[in-house]
Design goal:
- 54% of the residues lie in helices and 11% in strands.
- By secondary structure, it is of the alpha+beta class.
- It is elongated, with a radius of gyration of 36 Å.
- The protein starts with a helix and ends with a helix.
Length: 281
């Protein structure tokens, strides 16, 4: 409905601008010609008028030295004669456009306020995580355009080539869950590996390994911490989203990680919609 109104208003504005532009252009041309004529002596007036007439009238073939009985004033009136234009204001369309503009400004203001509140909330989460884990090198909190990223080295959570969460890693996930449990933002668990190939019966490639790790973390958060599953999603990137090179063991260890991403409100528009929740609301 709003799209149709905006399209209609846009068409109306375009028609108004075209008519007004024609009027101003012809008025400007008239003044320019009048000024030019005021600078000419009478002997050159007919020559000037004839040149103007030939420029605007393709059917005019008068030579430069020909004479005509047509009055110069009539020639100018004929030259600048144009169709009558009218400018009108549609009060209904104007009111609708004004209402749509106010609604758009209201939505933008609401979005800006939400982003501001969200930024402050992300900063609180970051400080809480940092304080909880005493700035350990194995856990980093990074602010990104898509949201807040809690990065865990894979050695903290898993053994090499395994998707089973270590017993001593459960305490880490519990602490993170306490901080994130009441957050309304969507959360994505992303698994990453290095580029060393893996080929087992359970994991034919690093795709399966990284996805299984992310999925197992979600299962734990839902089953043990009772986090809302509609807010959680899993992604496995294998070795294809490295943050370092893969030339040394230190670099490969950096790439082996799990990212817990608290997605910002602006990222939500690119996420699939839960139809059931939408209908309930």
């Amino acid at each position: 409905m709003k799209t149709n109104i905006l399209n209609n208003n846009q068409n109306y504005i375009n028609r108004w601008v075209v008519s007004y532009a024609d009027f101003v252009t012809m008025l400007l041309a008239l003044f320019m010609v009048m000024y030019a004529l005021s600078q000419l002596d009478i002997s050159h007036m007919k020559t000037f008028s004839s040149s103007i007439d030939r420029a605007f009238d393709g059917n005019s073939k008068l030579p430069n030295n020909s004479t005509t009985n047509l009055d110069e004033k009539s020639r100018l009136l004929k030259l600048f004669k144009t169709t009558e234009t009218s400018v009108y204001i549609d009060n209904n369309n104007s009111l609708t456009l004004d209402t749509s503009s106010k609604e758009l400004k209201k939505q933008l203001s609401s979005f800006e306020n939400r982003i501001s509140i969200e930024s402050a909330n992300f900063e609180n989460i970051r400080k809480t995580i940092k304080n909880e884990f005493n700035n350990t090198q194995n856990i980093n909190v990074i602010r990104e355009p898509r949201g807040l990223l809690i990065r865990l080295n894979d050695t903290v959570l898993f053994d090499r080539g395994s998707d089973i969460i270590k017993d001593n890693a459960l305490n880490i996930l519990d602490k993170i869950a306490v901080v994130l449990k009441n957050e309304t933002n969507s959360i994505r668990i992303e698994g990453h590996t290095d580029n060393l190939p893996i080929k087992t019966d359970k994991f034919p490639s690093n795709w399966e390994l990284s996805t299984a790790r992310a999925t197992n973390i979600i299962k734990y958060l839902v089953e043990k911490q009772k986090m809302n599953p509609t807010r959680l999603s899993a992604a496995g990137y294998g070795e294809y989203m490295p943050i370092s090179g893969n030339g040394t063991e230190i670099e490969r260890a950096t790439n082996r990680r799990v990212d817990i991403v608290v997605l910002s409100s602006s990222s939500k528009i690119f996420e699939p919609v839960n139809i059931k929740n939408t209908q309930n609301n």
